[in-house]
Batch of 3 targets.
Target 1
Amino acid sequence: MWLNLVVFATATLAYPWVVDGNVIPAWLLRHRTSDSSALDHVDLFYGTEGGGNVFPGATRPFGMAKVGVDVIDPSFGNSYSGYAPGGVVTGISMMHESGTGGAPQYGVVAQLPFTGDFNPHVQTNLSRAHSDSAKVGYYAVNTTNGVDVEFSAGERFGILKYNYHDGVDAKVLVNVSHHLTAPQRPWWTQYFVNGSIDATKSGYHGYTTIKGGWGDQKPWTLYFCANFSSAAQSVSSFQGTTVEQNRVSISSTEQDDSFGLVFDFGSRVSEVVSHVGISFISREQACSNINHEQDFNSLVSETQRVWNEEVFDKFEVVSPEPQVVDQFYTNLYGAHLIPSNRTGENPNPGWKPDQVYYDDFFTIWDTFRCLNPLHNIVSRKRGSEIVQALTNIYLNEGWTPDGRSANQNGRTQGGSNSDIVMADAFVKHIPDVDWEQAYAAMKQNAEVQPPYWYDSFAPDASTKQGRGALPDWLQYGYITRNYTRSVSRTMEYAYDDFALSQVAKGLGLSDDHAKYLRRSSQWQNIWNKDAQADGYDYKGFIQPRDADGSFNYEDYDPMSCGGCYWGNDEYEGKPVEYGFAVPHDIAKLIQLVGSSETFAKRIDDLYPLHGKKIADVGNEPSFLTPFLYNFVNEQWKSVELVRYIMQHDFHFGVKSLPGNSDGGAMQAWVIFSLIGIYPIAGTTTYLIASPFVNHLKLHLENGAVFEVSASGLSSDNIYVQSLKINGEKWNKNWVDHDTLFGPNGGSMEFVLGSSQVVWDTGSVPPSFGHIN
């Protein structure tokens, strides 16, 4: 019976639902909804292992407070999000990143409940009795140490609840210097600089100052404020191996000193609840960021309500496969963790509390391709705030970031890809942005080389912000090997300039439009028509080029990027992968490779489905490539390849992702793939594949609805036989943003089958940057 197979999660059902021609009765929808909410489909441990580094703790959408465990597990390596499945818990701290590489960030303002005597010679920790458990807004650790832990998070505070076993001495350790480290990458680790804590028996406040990390941040300070549900019987201090009884105030200026307080609640207390607030501004603001009247259960409920209202309730998903629904909502959750909304929390000079501010762009190089375009569909308000924040960072601090955390820019992996984030918002009419100011920020990136900032991994130019290799770009029209990452920078600078051209055009700046559109074609200057790769019968690849115009053959192989890191010609992608990284200029790329057939063959050769495993979807430069068959009207091959990648590179469970989540970029790729469309960032174009869900509705913020249906969908029936968009027959394998997500919303009605049908006989997707 098909009705028994339908699995979905939704909160609001205002429209009739049809699956394979059968109308699902409203009474069944209501019944099934009560059994299966979106929250039930979210796996917080998805992508936490295998290099995904997803944060599994408690937080809100884009929340500043990300409350989670900090774990030492030598077999796991660097705990980028604080979490590891084994090892011991050394603290429950208030701030974390999600899905990052480089090195761990934050893990600050920590408490740790324990029992028994405090031994300053031995690190206090908790051993788990079994695996941690979590659901949206809630996390729990059961230990073998006589105490169990639960915690939840608000926007800028958390509630931590400790349940002590009968008869044990209930204690809480507050280590002011606690922070995450990078034992496998000590050159990028964080260090404690100084701090202070003052307490009564009922609570405490203070600050901690940290420096270092992947962005090599200068010292930054976080203030904290906390209270306990019961007054402690006594408070002691510790510093290194020295303990002083009945001391409630202590400070330290020793780098990586271990110091703090121990609160002893005695053996009569079975539960201790602590409210902990944080702020970058002051202790007073940290205290005011706490809702002191809120209890633990109501905070969990409120946080879940916020997730439902802002994220999950916007979607209604139907699929006969439970795992597809799980995958959809779990990835939707992971796409809303960072950046962090810190409006009113920027301590840098000049900032005003009412200026919109987001931090933890870690990094835009990862997110601009599909995560930011996802926000511009699902939450235009957030998309607007992110662009406002980028603009405000420029206005107050001089440059938009590529990577940013702890209220400081750094590092830039390639181009100034905030330009593409801004352009994507601009062409999709994201409101409430001062576009003249935003465009000024973009022009700063395009015309002014940033001040030099030494980076031992790439000492040739600043990697803190802007375009470090800009002089070559302006002089030669490409980046020479005088700079690191010369090939990938050339490709990214071209795409970034295309982004400027689109905003300039919309603002009526015709000279700038022409200028930046011309510069967006400069990637062609590193195309060597004679370059070859061993084992392949076609010629022509992008390649390093010297200042005299000659192509540099030293150590060159289009199928290899060496270490693929800061000091190489290409960053996290091979030359053959970056050759496709010109989504604004695909028509010119097809002309350079010689024919549509060769273009398709080159994509074939990148993946094991038809060739070898050369492209790596675990790194973002190859995110768009599987969909590019659409440019030669072989859309069915895009469908096949996307299915292949989803089946072989993305999985379910803790080791679900093919690389770092990268702040939700991987999850956004999965979401678009499940829906059956993919954005070309900085344009209004979506390339069409085929959906993995039978039916999906997205309630847009403007009140309209975007709807997808897939008649005939099965494991064999994946190919598009026909398509209607907004009720009209459609023969193009691409669609414009306003057609689907404009004031009236939109619909896509797929008929799927098992045969490879060439239904896309209309015009190919537009190439904006091609210049004859």
Target 2
Amino acid sequence: MTTRLRAEYQDQAFGIGSATPRLSWCLESAPDGWRSDRYEVRIERADASVESVVVESGEQLFVPWPFAPLSSRERVRVSVRVGSGDAWTDVSEPLTIEAGLLDHREWQQDLISPSTIGGLADGAPLLFGRADLTAPPVSARLYLTAHGIVEFSINGERVGDDVFAPGWTAYEKRLQYRTYDVTGLLHKGSNSLQALLGNGWYRGQLVWPGNRSSYGDRLAVLAQLEVTYADGTRQTLGTDTTWGAVHSSILSDDFYDGQRRDLRITDSPEGKPVDTVDLLDGGFARLIAPSGPPVRVTETLPAVRLLTSPSGRTLVDFGQNLVGWVRIRVNGEAGTEVTVRHAEVLEYGELGVRPLRSAKATCTYTLAGDAVEILQPTFTFNGFRYAEIEGVPDLALDDVEALVLGTDLRRTGWFESSDHRVDRLHENVVWSMRGNFLALPTDCPQRDERLGWTGDIQVFSPTATFLFDTAGFLSEWLGDLSAEQKADGGVPFVIPDVLREPDPAAAAWSDAATIVPDAVHLAYGDAGVLERQYPSMRAWVEKMRGIVGEDLLWSTGPQFGDWLDPTAPPDDAAKAQADPAVVATAYFARSAGILARSATLLGRHADAEDYARLERDVRAAFIAAYVSEDGLVRSDCQTVYALAIVNDLFADERQRAGAGDRLAALVRAAGYQVSTGFVGTPVILDALSTAGRPDLAYRMLLEESCPSWLYAVTMDATTVWERWDSMLPDGSINPGEMTSFNHYAYGAVADWLHRRVAGLAPTSPGYRTIEVRPLVTGDLTSAAARHLSPYGEIAVGWRCEGDRIELSLTTPYGVSADVWLPGSTTSVEVGHGNHTFSSVLKLV
């Protein structure tokens, strides 16, 4: 009955970075009347010793490690059973936990870099060495990191299935290492070790053309191979000055521009001039184990169409805008050059490359002339639906496929409805998240940017935590946010911070410091993320308090504002209808409130009182300065009313009602088109629903004219666009610089679909309590959502049948629900199990 035992955020806790990992589990099929009141955790160590601990508690999420701390490399098996009264569950399947290197002083090998080759103008260097083993190993671990990105092989076999290791972090302060079980790749005697190094984020272009070496100008690798023999002895080998370096087949590589490879050149040191290696300062104290999964190939998609463009070029359509690689099977003569260019859309039948800005997004291969060659890149990625292929005259549809790349997150959320357009919109949101959650939450995957913009993830984090298990992924990114935060509390606009603004502070963007930890805590019930991030959260709120001065109104300094408001001109994305001071002050109140609640939960009572008072004072200042007696809000546009309504920035019911009426009037006057940008869009439908106008919220959702969510769907979009009109009705691409066809920010509407349309809304951390209260207006005849919460699967579905509504609900053990049928004035509370409800349909 116990299932899914986890350590920290991991189902497979291999190379974990904590000596005392917290444990979580969920229960299946708990009988009626079951009330967990204790649990027993059992540990089996490598020496066959067994220990168990019984804890009097009904908790099952992130419970403290009850044993002595793990030591580096220690491997244990942990299982749990749960008690209720006189009964116990069955013992869970054991979870194997293996610690990584927990003390930086245990790194014994060297960080090495080629002495003369592998420079900025060179291709990817191949570093190589040998490992001489006295006997076959019974266990072998490779601990690996790099300046750049690395593919490691042993005896010609690739190590691991992850991509772009070790990932992108705030390299100067936090450098990830990864742990691999390589026992099966080694043998007695001499073993060849090779590390192929790419520029990646460390030394590739970032932000703007020609901006390279953001972190350093030398690629390097650190590999520590630890071999254990049958007699228990351990041998440590790896990178040192005995290694050499040679040129590889990769002549150039860059995330923005692509990769060039000559397949006539072997990726082997045989027959090549060998360069020596230099030792670099390892900075071992900054090495950390990852808390989230790596980037992997998560899916393979076949090509769906071969096209010929008006200019005669061969185009491949994969039917889906995605992030990853094109793989081609070819049979050609030696020296033949094959070129693959990528784009998300076609414009007048040709590859639409203008939104790529300076990014070349091109891969080129020179064939070796073997019978069949497989062409795919290694150290780059592209955002694309279409590929233009040159140099393969007899290309067949079956010769081409797309490999989808992204952080390998477990899917946890689904939605469907009676309207196929809405379902396509939701699927577009999922695909945009898949493409942009690649090592970190990026803004877009195709042009010369691909950065961890804080504004994008703070609006999208509730959607992200529903759709995929992002607990470890976002916690990892938040660690970088803390590391990059300025001494005065300023939060950079992108994390990791490659913009390096001297005094970063912008409402909605920098507020990711408070909003994202709050979203992670709500979704997963992890108070630890608030504990870890609390200094960062507090520093950001104090930074705002220092900016605003005595009047508590944030009316100074540059702001992004309601970025990409649809009325903004193509060349000025920050020129929005919403007064930036109104937006900034509303966010100040929100962050102060989040901090006050977090301080309360963490037992910081003095802080809790201080920040609760600050929130009240900022609200009062906002109301006095920006809200009239009848509820009109300064700058009188959809965004300011939406922010005021969802944050309840009103003094009384008269103002609330007046603001709701004014928002409704603005929506009707706009013909139900969206008039909001990055800040207003995530909350506009919630605001209408809260104001008692769900009918208008549905009208906005289902509107197809531009700007609207469904406009892109009608234009055959398969991801969410950055601009409402990234593609114009005539099929031409918006001339604005900020034009991406894969940008998840406006996809934050999916959170409203989950919570309000389907009616599955968490009301306490970890979904321990939920509210099921679907908005049924007659615009849809059915909707359903399913979510794999930390306690197990929750499923809600409703359907209109004639004059009745049928609602079904499944809740796991540990979750209780308040169920409100449409039009009902009272709720029904239910616990775990399968529940059905039926009543006369009352539209809201």
Target 3
Amino acid sequence: MGRKLWLHKVMGAASLLALATAGAAHGQVVEELVVTAQKRVENVQDVPIAISAFSANALQERAVGNVAQLSNLAPNVTLDGGTPFSGSPSVLSAYVRGIGSDDFAFNIDPGVGIYVDGVYLARTVGANQDLLDVERIEILKGPQGTLFGRNTIGGAISIVTREPGDTFKFKGDVTTGSHKLMQARGSADLPLAEGLSSSITFGIKSRQGYVERIPYPDARARNTTSYTAFPSSGYDTASHEGGENSWNLRGKLKWKGELTKVVLSADYTREDGGGLANTLLATTEMVPGNFAGTSNLPGTAFDPTGTTGFLFAGLYNFCIGATPAQIAARNAQALCGVRGTQYSPGLRVASLAGVNVDADPTNDRLPFDSRFVSKDIDKSYATGNSFSNMVNWGVGGTVEHSLTDDVTVKSITAYRKLLWKSGTDADGSPLNIGQLSFNMKQWQISQELQLLGSALDKKLNYVLGGYYFKEKGSLHDYVTFDEGLLQVDGPNQLETKNYAAFGQVDWRPSELIGVTIGGRYTKEEKLFEGGQQDLNGFNYKLFGCSDANGNIRPNGAFPLAPISCQVGLSYPDPSNPVRVYAPGVNKQTFSNFSPKVGVQLHPADDLMTYVSWSKGYKTGGWTTRLTNPQLTAQPFGEEVATTWEAGFKSKLLDRRLQLNGSVFQTEYDGIQLNFQQGTSPTIRNAGDAKIKGVELEAVAVPLEGLTINASVGYLRARYTDVLAGVLAVSGPNVFQAGTFVGAPLPKTPEWKINLSPRYAFKLANGGSVTAIADWTYTSSIWNNAQRTYVLKRPAVQVVNASVAYADPDGAWSVTVGGTNLTDKRYLTTGNENIAAGAVFGTYSRPREAYVRLGVTF
């Protein structure tokens, strides 16, 4: 789309809103909204940062229940609940202006920082927060490294929960709806004494999944090895995928004296759901590979040409359908034999060799192919794991003390703990082609000190601060591919320490001009130890170092050289012959200075223009999901983003039209992207990119009772450099458009347009009716870095609407609404695993209706 066309769209939207507002009633103006984007309370219109902010009322009226549901309301923002193969909707995939992260692994940090009451959430697991008793949400766009720190390279999402009130009050609601939805929420303010108050908030939600599991109509399905025969973080299953079952609790205690305010808080979330919905999209068992070919290296089952053999799914099909003679001709007796090794005798599984061609028809097995690709995206033949269990809790304290009328010191202290298990049957079949499960344990502690002040008759405002953060934990991967031909058992340990000092000064030397200067210095140390192992010892079996009974010979003669099998295959740990990750603790140290410089012009009271230059970064780590032996750990480095931005904020037509806009350009270097290398999704610094964009957000009050929110976002995000090694594994082929110079970045639509009218009016009895609609257009998105064709998200228009009635006293209300009213379905996440034989993904929720009863007293 040409530049002239998108410019016409942006200017046309602004002109229509201005014309519509010209005849507005004189008594109604755009609502004021305060934010803390610069660590102090300010009107959002006075902050020289592009911010999409939402009040508590706006969130409830639009049925926004978690962070991901904000995606349609904010330009140049993509938020999805769930990442590839995570199996959990509580994992947040967040991208702002083309920068973010689409993973949950412990070794990968987010690119958009999530904060709750000023406390950073280090993991994407649990970041798709249930928005319980929220006062407002601020989405800050562009690098926020100066005031928010590392891993806010794309932006920051700040969730501010409500503080206890000084008088008793209760507000709650009960909602029922499609897929057996049942939700109850409530919040009570409980004053305790003069200056001392408390609040308690709860939420309970259950909903049946929208993907139904159905039995595959073939008796051979019963002969599949049970998924419980292979290691996993758990063995829970479900009749429907995509269900929810959670409850939340938050308590606060506030004491306010003459000079000091103290707020103590505690929150607890428990999730016990049916796991992320999954749909098998395509199978790739026909792709040739290196296993059991007809041109194998002597003494092995390895075909170096990769043309006459199989990959894992094709190998499974060959093993069950080939005669003993055919298997022997390809030297595949060990590959098709007993799965497992002598090092885990309790995990051995019987041989697959020739079961479909022997004399016993009762042991026949289903092959894996496209027969399991369901014609209905909401039906699945899966029988294995489907669960997401999470406990996420934290305690914190915020202390503010006024040293003078113009100087305040603020302390934010927090401790959080996360326990998470999930499991998903990715292959959509009764077979164990892709059984994935995970177990994460993490804790973090953080301390931030701020000195906030003003001088020169409030013409100069400043914030100085220090920050300490530490987290420690583990992530254990359990992945079974292709009936156990590959069995990944991957324990990982990680520890991070972070220290930072920051400051920002905002000076208004005259009524016309303002200047912003700030910076943050960060020092970080990361420790990591990976323990991945393949419990089937596949490489030993592939290279003639094992027998058909699963007994490997690590010290035996390597067929291709006069060395032992373990040395020849580069297995790194003599004490554990099946371990593929190099033993030992790995260390990386990062240091960074993230500056910001800005200039603002204030030509009128309700008009500000600004220009800013800022930098941000995201720390590096290690690639962990490896299935081939590695003698050393594979690190990846940090990302860096540098952004120029020019924008304006305005209120026009007697404050009946609020119009904000910005243009920006970002140089994005060292991009960490997830690429499929065989069965292993690996992280690399893929290259560099240039991102250009425009945003326009408007709020108009054209008539008494009518408010129109509208936004337009345009992004052009393209690679300017791609590493040769990345091109080798992710270039164009029959399955994918590939990654190369000039290709677009993942999770980055070119256009996003939203229009949200709200009309409220009084009835004769004193009650009120509020009608709301949301229409969002999002252009097509590539869901992964390789740009897999079947995972591409098409351009889509989504419509939500609701009508609410409130009684004359405001004591109760009833809301009837619906989401995705036109039932547009699109993939929110997915994964291409050609080697394993499956491409799978998660579709957006279907059309759903709800009824909510709210009470206040």
